[in-house]
């Protein structure tokens, strides 16, 4: 199973990347994991035209191949002004349903304080209409992120409970990935008549 983790902070050495590294360590040995830190790729601002994705200097073709190989995604965004980060939203706009449709996505919000719910709500509401990713029912909100997931062992009860819930979410993500593999296979072998006419959501 291939799992792609995408961290969407626009800052280097971010807490989002720290969370991504922790999640990578918790995944099973038989799960092949890749981590894309979007701030490292200098992606173009998508203008609605497919050609802009492969403009000079764009590394989107490399990212696109990793998305295509993935069976599941983990999307990590910091909370900026109550929203998901601009770079994460740009990434999701660039995703093509041919690469992402009917693949599960675990949503993760990272915040230095006690909020963090708004980015999850925003992504669930309007981030998946055309790329057709399937957000899993459970999500993660990593509150007070500076104080958790910093050491090999939890430092307090909250850190311990968070790690246990992360384990559950990763377990369920793997199960959704396995189940949706069947859906994707049928999508190709038993397509709906005029299926190409419904490549965009309503």
TrEMBL record:
SUPFAM superfamilies assigned to the protein according to its UniProt record, in alphabetical order: Flavoproteins
Broad EC category: oxidoreductase
Pfam families: FMN_red (PF03358)
Protein species of origin: Shewanella youngdeokensis
Domain of life: Bacteria
Keywords attached to this entry: Flavoprotein, FMN, Oxidoreductase
Enzyme Commission number(s) of this protein: 1.-.-.-
Residues of the NADPH-dependent FMN reductase-like domain: 1-142
GO molecular function, one term: oxidoreductase activity
InterPro entries registered for this protein in UniProt: Flavoprotein-like_sf, FMN_Rdtase-like_dom, NAD(P)H-dep_reductase
Full protein name: NAD(P)H-dependent oxidoreductase
